[in-house]
Amino acid sequence: MGIKFERVSYQYQGIDQRGYLAIGDINLSINAAGEFITLIGETGSGKSTLVQHMNALLLPTEGRMKLFGLTIDKNTKKNKKIKLNPIRKKVGLVFQFPEYQLFEETVLKDIIFGPKNFGVSEEEAIKRAKKMIEVVGLDESYLSRSPFNLSGGEKKRVSIAGILAMEPDVLILDEPTSGLDPMGRNALLEVFYDIHKTLNKTVIIITHDMNTVYEYAQRALVMREGVLVYDGDPLQLFSKKNIDNWNLETPDILALSKAMETKFDITFSTPPRSRKALFTEIKEVLK
Amino acid sequence: MKNIVIGRYVPGKGFLYDLDPRTKLIALLVLMAATFIIDELIHMAAAILLIGVILVIGRISVKRVYLGLRPLLFLLIFTFAFQILFNTQGDLLFETPLYYSPITLGLVVVIVLIWGFTKRFIKFKLLYFLATVFLSLFVLNTFTEPLVFATGTFSIYEDALEMALFIMLRLIIIVTLSTILTITTKPTDLNLGLESVLKPLKVIRVNTEEIAMIISIALRYIPTLLDEANKIMLAQASRGVDFQEGKLKEKVMQIVSLLVPMFIISFKRSDELANAMEARSFIPGHPRTRLHLLTWKTLDTVVLVVSLTLLISSISIRVFL
Question: What average pLDDT does range A261-270 have in this prediction?
């Protein structure tokens, strides 16, 4: 179960019949629960295309996928009997720009739009909306406002709440923290981490922020020119030599702790991944 | 949505690509007028032949032109059927009785149903449709004695056939000519040409520059907005909107969920574009210099003279012969 890619490629069809290969030969397996994954790569490396396959918005032009037991390949589109909607209930995808999905008169209506499409009753959906608006860091007074009079960050939060209210098994976020202030960004990341921890859900985040990758992720995926070049522990990723070739930068904490280790000739017992962990390690060393 | 052929520029080489857009625009108008003036079949045939020659010399694939014509097939069939059914002038060419009885009508219904269910598996849809129409007429033509409750006649008159043929040919010629224009001219060049062709309208205080600017911006944003629409559809699909199916009430909701973000994004984009233009000192109505200037060549003069000659000769044939 979960998400499995077997040699998946996707080609965008150009006007002049020449295709553009967005992702090529992807092999990937993601569990339906308990993973916290970050997906990184340059702009145009195929990250968004990849995640749009995970809830069957795009169907592979080569290879096949298994999404929660359902096999999907290039022939799936023609077969009218295969229903893709149930997959989209299981895999919630938040798009990068909230403008693409907000359309209702009030925030409340917009949040319950998703759940209602998947057959959740109105009362239950409203209950979820009230809960989720708090979860994303806004309060209930927002529910009666128009989604178009909100600031960029607030729109973003509302669009995230709209997907959270669908209660998907796997939550995918396409650059959820872009356009947010640092405080708001950290708070939102804590929310995703909390969802992952308490509800044991799989969360996949597309990000350009290496600090996020290093601090939260158990697993990092790196895309480069449509190819999955790395799949594994972020700790090992940043100790690799070729991160410069992949246009990734070293996370601040890692750079700092490395510098401290060489400068003061000390070794931390475990490499610290967050500011807090670094402080405890320093305390440990000073003792 | 991605297969719109009308109005799409296709890069290539040939004399049509070398022509000045002004020439092409004026020639298009002149030739269109000429097709409406000629009223004899032999002249129409000559016009079709001329188009063929243009396509061959200009090295434009007939397939592309056909793709441009395809959306018009329905209109063509409709006008043809309309003329045949309702135009009763001229000599009677063909007449046959039609018998309406439960059996024949039932058979027609069955034929139409079979056509409805199987049309998606047949490659030549138009031929299949015509075959269905003929089969239905044939069935209605069979005489089933005791049950016939009404009779009618199916008749074709000479004028109907002629009119239908003329309308069809004229439509084909006009669309082919416009397709040739858009295939061989970049939207920016076309716009530049339009602006300069419309210049005489300045006398009656029409701001042609602004009109041209509006048209070019609109053309520029068609692909962008299609792209945005696609993104919105994906975003809503991931919230459970199934654009393929659903009842009428759901369909309305689906369209609303697509249109509202579309409007908002369009307004936002136009606002941003206006700011960007102003930031680069665009002032409406002020004279501007151009990066690409139109150049008039001998070829342009030749083409213009030839098309004007065609128009004048078609007028003189109509008036004097």
Answer: 83
